[in-house]
Design a protein that fits this description.
Layout (H helix, E strand, L loop, with lengths): L13 H20 L24 E4 L5 E3 L2 E3 L2 H6 L3 H5 L1 E5 L5 H14 L4 E3 L7
Parallel strand pairs: 1-4, 4-5
Antiparallel strand pairs: 1-2, 2-3
């Protein structure tokens, strides 16, 4: 009597296929989360609709360059900073009107820093969702 040798069943290469699919999934996840260029039509600064009032402790800059702090008009940046305590000078928050020219905003920021503000932050509506 003759014994038949048991043949090993052919294994399917499913593990290799699963690994390839997993690597492709990881690749597309990483490629999809890389920083994409901003849409040219995107408008980031939007401050006109701030619920009718500015956040507390912010210097509001109107489109014509007028400044207001806690509802009181401010004459100039130097006088504004001098009236602040040392703690308040650490961070000065600005809420610029969207129509305010950038040149005016940069100039005002320089004046605030020169007058003694340690850090000047712009408060805007969130532009990217």
């Amino acid at each position: 009597m003759r014994k038949f040798a048991k043949s090993k069943p052919q294994r399917e290469p499913t593990i290799a296929l699963i690994n390839i699919v997993f690597l492709m999934l990881v690749f597309f996840m990483v490629a999809g989360t890389l920083s994409q260029p901003l849409d040219p039509a995107l408008r980031l600064v939007e401050t006109r609709d701030l619920e009718g009032r500015a956040p507390p402790d912010t210097l509001v800059i109107h489109s014509d360059g007028r400044m207001a702090y806690r509802g009181d008009d401010q004459q100039n940046a130097t006088a504004f900073v001098e009236a602040l305590s040392e703690e308040e000078r650490a961070v000065v928050r600005l809420v610029p009107d969207r129509a305010l020219p950038a040149k005016t905003l940069v100039s005002l920021t320089r004046e605030l820093r020169t007058a003694g503000a340690q850090k000047v932050m712009l408060v805007t509506e969130r532009g990217l969702q």
